[in-house]
Amino acid sequence: MSDEQTFPPFPRLPIEVRRLIWVRALPRGRIQLFAKNVPWEDWRLFPPTIAHVCREAREVVMNHAVVRGFPTARDKHNETWFIGSSDILELASGFPYPLSNPEPFFASAEALAINSGDFEGDVRAVIKDLIEGTRFHSVKVVYLIVDQISTAYWPKFRPDMTEKDKGKGTILDLCDKSDMRKIEDYKVWAGYQEMAPSIPRREDVEFALRTSLDTTIMEELQAYQDRMALIHPIGTNGPVTRQRSRPSTVLSQDHPWVQQQWRRLPEFRPAILVLGWT
User: Hey, is 19 helix, strand or coil?
Assistant: First the structure.
């Protein structure tokens, strides 16, 4: 095969195949940060490169992205292009936020990232929303960030990042083999540069993290069950009445209802956040 980066027969492929190829070309692992007191324009995601290729590719991107703009004096076109199926929504410093309708982001996100040190704040709030089904209907995995590392050299290990995205960082899953290989490659390279980065290992953080997580989930399941017991609609031939005194059950982790609710929750995985600047 030649080194030429073109494929002339591409337009002759069936449109369904072309669209699948465009979807596969979408960027993956970008981070959209939601945080109080952080300038939105500094953390917005730019349109993927393929959005500028042709009308068909742009339509595919538009169909998969939440595109929102928050005009400011600095930049009147500061739209963010968040792709829920491939980008990561990072929730920080006081979720939920007083933004103008953030629900489209919450509804489309398949991956969240939260600081694992905030089990009484952001983590608990997200677990409560997941249990009640009020937000995050598409989430499949929640990354619990156990550490944050800043290094000017990380973009060397993310060649897929555009120049505009290089400062926004990478989530590395401590349970994922390919991510662990990236960490080991970085540590080897850093060793040659006479650097000794301290990166937590899965076995060092997972037990304590799982203990805190299980405790929080059980507490929120009990609280949800208690609320349902106090205010439970009873259907009658007349108006719907509410029962206020039905006693709730003290739940255990092996209770059938608890097991059923637990299976509805996404995976929770320990991760690190690497911030890199060029």
Answer: helix
Which whole number is the average pLDDT over 15-33? 89
Most confidently modeled range among 39-43, 83-87, 181-185: 83-87
Q: How far apart are CA 45 and CA 89, in angstroms?
A: 11
Alpha-carbon span 249 to 166, nearest angstrom: 50
- Report how far residue 5's alpha carbon sits from residue 188's, in angstroms, rounded to the nearest whole number: 32
Separation CA 26–CA 50 (nearest Å): 7
Integer-rounded Cα radius of gyration of the chain: 22
| Gap between the Cα atoms of 29 and 8, Å rounded | 30
pLDDT band at 190 (very low <50, low <70, confident <90, very high): confident
Q: Over pLDDT 70: what percentage of the chain?
A: 76
Helix (H) or strand (E) holding 241: strand 241-243
Tell me whether strands 267-276 and 141-151 are parallel, antiparallel or unpaired: parallel
The pLDDT assigned to 209 comes to: 93
Give the β-pairing of 170-173 and 267-276.
antiparallel
Mean pLDDT (the chain) is 81
- Under DSSP, the state recorded for 118 is -
Residues sharing a CB contact under 8 Å with residue 118, sequence separation 6 or more, in sequence order: none
Residue 154: how many other CB atoms lie within 10 Å: 21
d(CA 110, CA 82): 11
Other Cβ atoms closer than 10 A to 229: 15
Q: How many Cβ atoms from other residues are within 10 Å of residue 70's Cβ? A: 14
- Tell me which DSSP letter residue 100 carries: S
123-174 tens-digit pLDDT: 999 999 999 988 899 999 999 999 988 877 665 666 566 666 655 688 999 9
Structure-token pair, residue 10 = 């591409």
